[in-house]
Amino acid sequence: MSTESRKKRKHSDSDAQVPLLTRSEVWFDDGNLIVQAQNTLFRVSRGVLAYHAPGIVELLNDPERMVDHIEGVELLVLQDAAEDVEVVFKQLFHRKFSDDFFPSFAAVAACARIGKKYKIESLYEAAVPIYWKPSLARPREYNS
């Protein structure tokens, strides 16, 4: 047996894996707020978001919140699934749902969940009746 001890390499901060951030389809070059959910970034209008989501305004105005910036634009980090935030932002900024489009169960659930959490009443109120529709359980009745 060898009496020499093996030297371990010291790990530096640069050795840590930095998660790769990706841009969502919801990215407006003139947006003045970047929202991060998991590893996905969304660039949106703070004013439009404030109009629809009073709960997010509360987060933005929290005096305890650390303010970071990306590309000179304020960053807000949400602790929600990126897929859920994308569904909600597409609805708010792109109006992806319409009367003739029947969304997936996951999309409706995301709208109900995020709508309630961030006080997006119009989205929450639109999602809840669809969420409880008996036909939602039948796969042929909705798009994914």
From TrEMBL:
<protein>
    <submittedName>
        <fullName>F-box domain-containing protein</fullName>
    </submittedName>
</protein>
